[in-house]
Design a protein that fits this description.
It contains ten helices and twelve strands. The chain has 301 residues and is of the alpha/beta class. The chain has three domains: 84 residues, Winged helix-like DNA-binding domain superfamily/Winged helix DNA-binding domain (Arc Repressor Mutant, subunit A, Orthogonal Bundle); 100 residues, 3-Layer(aba) Sandwich (D-Maltodextrin-Binding Protein, domain 2), CATH 3.40.190.10; 101 residues, 3-Layer(aba) Sandwich (D-Maltodextrin-Binding Protein, domain 2). A hairpin with a 4-residue loop joins strand 1 and strand 2. The two termini are 59 Å apart.
Length: 301
Amino acid sequence: MNTPELRQLRHFVAVAERLHFGRAAAALHISQPPLSRSIRDLERRLGATLLARTRRRVELTREGARFLEEARRLLAQLEHAVLEVRRIAAGEGGRLRLGFVSLADYGVLPGLLKAYKTARPGVALALREMLSPEQVAALAAAELDFGLLLPPVAGAELEHIVVQRERFLAALPLRHRLARARGRIAVRELAGEAFVMAPREIAPGLHDIVAGLAARAGFAPRVAQEAIQMQTVVSLVSSGLGVAIVPACLANLGRRGVLYREIADAHARLDLWLAWRKGALGGPGGAAGRDFVLHARRVAR
């Protein structure tokens, strides 16, 4: 296909808007002969006469008037594309795809989103609530730019920062025998209780901290119900189906029928990672992502 060149479109628009080759050549900072050759070559490529020329005047033909509309549209689209790419390179535009576990929604996520959107209003954020293993797979496949997920992570080359570090609370049904006691409770007091827990294959780090607490207290949790989302764990506790040991940020959920108690036992904290593909933030196109990490560090502190 004998497609016109971009410079020919610019040349044609300059002449068509002024209807004068000399003034158009001056505006383009070129001499008139190469401008005339450019227009003739454009007409040859198109197989149509765009400009009717006489010694005294230049006029647009019907074909030329229609082509002027399209040429202006194409040049405007190109200018928009150039500006958009420059904005993305400067971190002022584009789109970031963020996966997150529900736990993040009760902790670091709201503050992070607010801070980033205030600083970078031109960057669109596409959010997806996902389990940690799903996020790892999506990051590896370049279907996500960032993931707020729970370690450990296997089988993917990721970089990360810790953005949330949670202590644990005991979540009890409101009418539980321990609900009226004062002060912190020892984990051994939950021996023999029905537990609501997340399955280990979904959240191994979370599961192992809870199981480890129980083991050090001398018992293995009797799991009555499993739930893959932490808000569902709390909901089942509120229904009286068991007790749970949950990250402290879940107290922000505000579920009725649940009482949270501090745990007296020393225990490991649960880390929440902001993770991304190794090397994904390099180069000029990674400015928006690098700024997102910077805001995550600030919010985490």
